[in-house]
């Protein structure tokens, strides 16, 4: 199936406008629920997002800043606050001892899991879709992200 292209200066069709609006609504609801889940753990949204990244694997501060789309100095402050709560730690990178990695502690990984488990708004409606519908949605989202 060909992907429709929107020419500069041309108004998108009504279906495209509706899909964009729906995507915006999903993103807004996700952020709202994520902020509420973070607050339930006395975390800011930025702290929760960083902790979620660190729960996957330790990362250098510069890479964290890139992923969060913020300045490295902001990441330093966020890691400092997570470290003070025992949710993250700094350690030398085994590949380059000059580089510091931020890593989730065991407690940090537990909190990150709890955050993910508390995000129900998307998970519950998605469960109402068939596996084929979820696969089609996933594939469409991947194509959208790969194209931009």
From TrEMBL:
Pfam families: MarR. InterPro entries: HTH_MarR-typ (IPR000835), MarR/SlyA-like (IPR039422), WH-like_DNA-bd_sf (IPR036388), WH_DNA-bd_sf (IPR036390). SMART domains: HTH_MARR. This is MarR-family transcriptional regulator. One of its GO terms (biological process) is response to stress. Transmembrane segments: none annotated. It comes from Streptomyces griseoflavus Tu4000. SUPFAM superfamilies: Winged helix' DNA-binding domain (SSF46785). Residues 16-146 form the HTH marR-type domain. Coiled coil: none annotated. PROSITE patterns: HTH_MARR_2 (PS50995). GO terms for molecular function: DNA-binding transcription factor activity. It comes from the Bacteria.
């Amino acid at each position: 199936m060909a992907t429709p292209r929107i020419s500069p200066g041309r108004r998108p069709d009504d279906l495209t406008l509706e899909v964009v609006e729906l995507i915006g609504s999903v993103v807004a609801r996700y952020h709202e629920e994520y902020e509420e889940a973070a607050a339930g753990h006395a975390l800011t949204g930025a702290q929760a997002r960083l902790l979620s990244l660190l729960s996957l694997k330790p990362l250098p501060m510069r890479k964290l800043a890139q992923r969060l789309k913020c300045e490295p100095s902001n990441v330093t402050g966020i890691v400092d606050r997570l470290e003070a709560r025992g949710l993250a730690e700094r350690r030398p990178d085994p590949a380059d001892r000059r580089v510091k990695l931020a890593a989730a502690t065991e407690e940090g990984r537990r909190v990150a899991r709890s955050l993910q488990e508390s995000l129900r708004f998307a998970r519950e409606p998605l469960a109402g879709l068939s596996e084929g519908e979820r696969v089609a949605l996933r594939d469409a989202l991947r194509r959208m992200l790969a194209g931009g």
